[in-house]
Amino acid sequence: MSVLTVRQKVLSSLRAGWRMKDAVVLFCSPFLLLPLPLVIGTKEAACAYVIILMAVYWCTEVLPLSITALLPTLLFPLMGIMTSKDVCMQYLKDTNMLFVGGLMVAVAVEHWNLHKRIALRVLLIVGVRPALLMLGFMGVTAFLSMWISNTATTAMMVPIVLAVLEQLNGPLDSNGAPQSPASGPALELPPDPQEKSGSMPSLSTLISSDHVALPMESGNGQLELEELSGEAEEKRRMCKGLLLCVCYAASIGGIATLTGTGPNLVLMGQLSQLFPQNGDVINFASWFAFAFPTMILMLMLAWFWLQFVFIGFNLRRTWGCGVVESEKSKAAYDIIREEHGQLGPMRYGELSVLALFVLLVVLWFTRDPRFIDGWATHAFNSKEEFVTDATAALFIAILLFVLPSEPPRYLYFWKSSDAGSKAVHTAAPPLLTWEVTQKKMPWNIVLLLGGGFALAKGSEESGLSLWLGNQMTPLHSIPPWAISIVLCLLIATFTECASNVATATLFLPILASMSQTIGVNPLYVMVPCTLSASFAFMLPVATPPNAIVFSSGYLKVSDMAKTGIVMNILGILCITLAINSWGRSLFDLDTFPAWANTTAAV
């Protein structure tokens, strides 16, 4: 048997083993961890067994994340940690309903293409100069990610980016480089045969016409090829920078609102679960007051970093100072204007969804703005919190299924359509239908949030949270800001390999117990770590926006890793600055709150 044959058999065996790794992890992990509850035999050990098993499944994704989140409904009752009734009650809490209501409004915005109209309008305002174009893409992506899924935002923005890049740089090859006609006959390509008279000229024609004049003006052919190669490299870097700015802005923008990303909702739910007397310290208004400035700061630093790496700070080239707009820039701008024109004027349904969206934001901000009494306080003059942010979200969500998508006629909701020569009147459909909601609503996140709340409750009931907190007593001698930085680094690293919601779910109950033990305001460590869970910039698998941009084929893993590690560092620095400045006064972080002390005492 030849060496080559043996090598092929070994490689084949390794591939087969790799394909079986999911099954090995799925079936072996429960048995390998079984000595933990059997040998120790305490409730704390049994709860730790469930948490570690779920952490393994979440990190390896051998089961869908939402299915793994259902394990507490099976294992907690079997191990005597909680009754099935108590476990199941954790899966539809107030936070879950806030998520459902907010997502229904986001689905309506997406269904009516309102997000696309906003994006294109902003790009028409900022223009197509490289630096301003990147700022425009990042600004609109971050704004949309505050309200709708960062995955949906990225999926919408990437085709727009690619269309603009094609108009600016020409057709792109598989490496993300412009297909520059830099050699031989390619300089004299005829016009595109599919080009119609009166239509926008194709980009291959614009590029070739720009480059044809170069050999006539240069006496050194080798020098010209080097210049063209340098220009192609510059355009390749711009392509990568504009694509990366979209996925990074999607992750950054989500931190600004409670419903923008999953970890924010996990924090809110865990606070109400572990500290029921916290007095709604985290609501939409208070979170926005803290996180929005943090988002703006992080977004600007990301813009400067991406511009430095991929575009440069040549004002004449990137900002267009003193430069007459080129044909390619005009063509790219025309593409954006044409896309915006295809949307047509705003329809009645779009205006209705926009009005409801604005109303929801107003209701969220004015429910309990802290510095004055909100509308919920005046409507329900009671110490009990009858109305929450979830109430406002569900109110608007229900209206989406009630209000018509066309203007009412004669006090009834009608629309007219031509059927032959007769006008047929039928009832107008609502702004949002259940069929559309079912297709676009990520129901798995609801289960994932519920699984996190079940884990937190199980840790509390079993005593595992108290035990973990006692083990961290030596941290009392370390300054809180140093603890916060170390934990942010840990979570930012962990979230590169695991879901950001799963990361927040696993760590936040532990951090809450630790803060109680060392006498630090729980928000001092829980808020920074929640934000860090959303800052996954290095790997394509870290977050869906990264994966969408990477799947375009214009980026390498090394491109994302080298740029992303600096982004992670910038993110941790921004979080540290925010929590130790305006966050300190906003959440009164210098004192250990009574609501945390009371919960610890219980």
Automatic annotation (TrEMBL):
Q: Name one GO cellular component term.
A: plasma membrane
What GO molecular function terms would the record report? citrate transmembrane transporter activity; sodium:dicarboxylate symporter activity; succinate transmembrane transporter activity
Q: Name one GO biological process term.
A: fumarate transport
Pfam entry (one):
Na_sulph_symp
Where does this protein chiefly localize?
A: membrane
List all membrane-crossing ranges.
51-76, 97-114, 120-148, 241-261, 281-306, 348-366, 386-403, 441-458, 478-511, 563-582
Name the InterPro entries for this protein: Na/sul_symport_CS, SLC13A/DASS
Q: Which UniProt keywords apply?
A: Ion transport, Membrane, Sodium, Sodium transport, Transmembrane, Transmembrane helix, Transport
How does the record classify its membrane topology?
A: Multi-pass membrane protein
Q: Does the keyword Transmembrane apply?
A: yes
Compartment list: Membrane
Q: Where is this region: Disordered?
A: 173-202
Q: What is this protein called?
A: Solute carrier family 13 member 5
